[in-house]
Specification:
4 helices
Length: about 230
């Protein structure tokens, strides 16, 4: 069992206090995620991390800005209650709304066995980030509409839920082999876009999870301690 610690003792900081230029689009605080609803513990759409992780991410941002890009985070610290809610969702074949666009062609009951859902997460330890890269001058995109039927996460970018990031070949949180970082099922341009993110993160000590192009961890800050304190406004 991963140990937990009292909320008052958590060493988490708001990313906005370290680098407000990094864009934030926190999917689990809203409805554009594979559960279709805000997750427990996400009382605000804010990125929290351990300070050393946030400082390392600030260094990555400085690199990508020079190339005309910005980082955009989708998820950072994740309370353990949210991890438990994900597991509950995965085990419930009748969970609504229909979010099969996140796992096209897969049997939802097999998401655990396939490694897409886990009962524990480095996010809960404040050392993992889900993120992408966006052009500094990206054109505005339409807001997410929960009443609209979007295409699967593996569809062409124009058919997926709106996102201003570089086209990485799939959307965020796409349960598909196409999301594997080294997937051979994406175009050369999409591979190059993934490389922009991978190279910048790797240079500053982050390790990618090979099945998710968006997921990186800062292992040198990981002491194995998980937290369940809710995410609040800065």
């Amino acid at each position: 069992m991963t140990p937990s610690i009292a909320a008052a003792q958590t060493p988490l900081v708001h990313l906005r206090d370290i680098d407000p230029s990094i864009r934030q689009e926190m999917h689990y605080a809203g409805r554009d995620n594979f559960t279709g609803r805000p997750l427990p513990g996400y009382d605000a759409g804010e990125c929290l991390l351990r300070r050393s992780v946030a400082l390392a991410l600030k260094r990555v941002q400085a690199d990508v800005v020079k190339a005309g890009y910005s980082l955009k985070v989708y998820d950072c610290y994740r309370p353990t209650r949210a991890v438990a809610a994900m597991a509950t969702w995965a085990r419930n074949p009748h969970a609504m709304p229909d979010t099969s666009r996140f796992y096209p062609g897969l049997d939802k009951s097999k998401l655990f066995a396939l490694g897409y859902i886990s009962g524990h997460s480095a996010h809960s330890r404040g050392v993992a980030i889900d993120l992408t890269v966006v052009p500094l001058k990206a054109a505005p995109v339409a807001a997410f509409d929960p009443g609209k039927r979007y295409g699967p996460c593996t569809a062409p970018a124009a058919d997926r839920a709106p996102d201003d990031s570089l086209d990485m070949g799939t959307g965020f949180d796409c349960f598909s082999v196409k999301s594997w970082t080294a997937s051979g099922s994406i175009t050369p341009a999409q591979k190059a876009n993934r490389r922009v993110l991978w190279d910048a993160m790797h240079r500053h000590g982050f390790t990618n999870y090979k099945r998710e192009w968006w997921h990186f961890s800062y292992d040198r800050a990981d002491d194995g301690v998980a937290f369940d304190t809710p995410i609040t406004k800065r």
